[in-house]
Amino acid sequence: MRPASTSLLAHTAATLRGARNSHFVNDREKQEHERRVFAEFAASASLPVDEASIRSGERGKPDIFCKLAGMLTYFELARVSDSKMNKLRIRTLLAAVRRGAPVMQKVDASEFGLPERDVLREKLKNNYETDGAPVDLLLYYDVEDFKALGAIPPIVGDEFFRDTMGRTLESSHGPFQRIWVYERYTKKVLWRFPE
User: Fold this and answer.
1) In whole angstroms, what is the distance from residue 5 CA to residue 93 CA?
2) Nearest 5°: CA angle at 148, between 85 and 79?
3) Can you give the CATH number for the domain in which 126 is found?
4) Residue 180 domain flag
5) Looking at the domain assignment, is residue 15 inside a domain?
6) Is 76 helix (H, G, I), strand (E, B) or coil?
7) Which ranges of 48-184 does DSSP label H, i.e. alpha helix?
8) Given 98, 144, 169, 191, which residue has the most CB atoms within 10 angstroms?
9) pLDDT by residue for the chain (195 residues), tens digit each?
C-alpha cells in the first residue's frame, strides 16, 4: 500500500497536469472568477460599491464595471503570478511523484522576474474603452485553488511595492486612476497608488 502522502502527491500532480496552460476552462468561468475576486476586494477595501451593479466588461473594456459611490467605474484585474516559477514547481512536483521522493531542480535565477512589476508593466501598455469613466487596476495574489501555486506574496510591505512598482509608476500610471494590490488569502489590500 502506498503512503498517504504519495497518493496525495499523485492526485495533485494529475490535477496540475491539466492546469499547465490555463486557469480557466472558458470565458464564463473567468468572468465569474473576476467578479468573485472583485467583490471580495471591494468589501476588504471598504469601497462604497453597489454589489448589485458589479458586471463583467465587454471585449475591449476593462474586466469589471460597477457603481462606485454612485458613479460608473471600471476595474481591470490581473493575477500576480510568475508563470515560469509555477511551471518549475509543477515540474518539481511531478518529478517527486515519479520518484517517490523530493527532487532537486536546477534554477537559473535570471529567468525569473518580479511578477508584480512585470504584470504592471504589461497592463500599463493597454488602452481601454470606458467612454470617459475612470478605470482602476487591481493586481491580486490568488489562492483560490492549487493551480495558482505560489500566489501568496513572498514579501509584503509598502517599501517592497514602492521599490518594485512605484518606480515604474513615476513616469506614468497609464490609463489608471488608481492601482491596487490585493491578497486573497488574508483578504487585505497590501498597497495602493497613489497612496
Assistant:
1) 12
2) 90
3) 3.40.1350
4) yes
5) no
6) strand
7) 83-99, 115-124, 158-161, 167-171
8) 191
9) 444 455 555 555 555 544 444 466 688 999 999 999 999 999 999 999 999 999 999 988 999 999 999 999 999 999 987 666 666 667 777 777 888 877 776 666 556 667 888 889 899 999 999 999 999 999 998 865 544 444 555 556 677 777 777 777 887 778 999 999 998 888 999 999 987
